[in-house]
Amino acid sequence: MNIIKYTDRMDIYIEEDRNIICIQEKWEYNWLTKVTPWTLTEKRKFHEMADSRIWKNWGGYFKLKVKGTSSFALKHKNTIFTVNFDIKWVLLNSHWKVNITKIAPGGFERSNVKWNERIINLDTEDTKLIGKGVYAGTSYYQYPISHEFGHTIGNSYHALKGRKSVHGDEYSADNRVNGGFRLDYFSIMNIGNELRNRHLDYILVQLNTMIPNTTFYIV
Fold first, then answer.
1. 81-89 and 63-68: which strand pairing?
2. How confident is the model at residue 204 (pLDDT cuts 50, 70, 90)?
3. 76, 107, 146, 155: least buried by Cβ within 10 Å?
4. Do 112 and 121 contact (CB within 8 A), yes or no?
5. What is the secondary structure of the chain as a DSSP string?
């Protein structure tokens, strides 16, 4: 039996039989171009690459357990749930409007997520591994689409305003402000590709409203 929470920006599925928690976002694309027109094959390929990259970067990393007095918590007190992530291409009833600009290989467009408007701006280079800079002799690389996806699952200061436990601003010059982690260069929410437990904070807040007297936590 699945327990489901539908939200404006994602749907959360607790798949009890498989010990899986799936976070699914529905993306409605707006296909833009600065070069040649999009073909249907190119559109399908971009979505497949985006979905695959997000899965590889985010899927399977977070393991959760539950505690509490509910029948669910008691039943699953020894269960480990794996968190997976999925994007679904839709034409209607989307969580996110996605402006995807086709650009020349090696080109650049600034990508971002507008949390309040539920808009994602991407380009066709964002599924590739991109060099993000060199600090203290170390080179940093990132898949931009995975970074932007991280914002859509709640790593945004706008997601839960005032909560320092939500680490949306990892570029803050002051690590004490708004959960800033500016010096954690390897973080996927900075300029690297590594996940941190704090990157699931928003999801945990949502999960912990789904079943009364049940708390999910990372193990």
1. antiparallel
2. very high
3. 107
4. yes
5. -EEEEE-SS-EEEEETTTTEEEEEEEEEEEEEESSSPPPHHHHHHHHHHHHHHHHHHHTT--EEEEEESSHHHHHTTT--EEEEEEEEE-SSS-SEEEEEEE--TT-----EEETTTTEEEEETTTTS-EEEEEETTEEEEE-HHHHHHHHHTT-STTTTTT-TTS---TT-SSTTSTT--TT-TTBTTTTS-B--GGGGHHHHHHHTTTSTTEEEEE-
What are phi and psi for residue 94, nearest 5 degrees? -85, 160
Closest CA to 204 of 65, 100, 111, 98: 65
Nearest to 186 by CA among 148, 145, 128, 147: 147
- The whole-number average pLDDT for the span 151-157 is 91
Judge if pTM exceeds 0.90: yes
Question: What's the CA gap between 193 and 51, in Å, rounded?
Answer: 16
Q: Parse the chain into domains and list their residue ranges.
A: 2-218
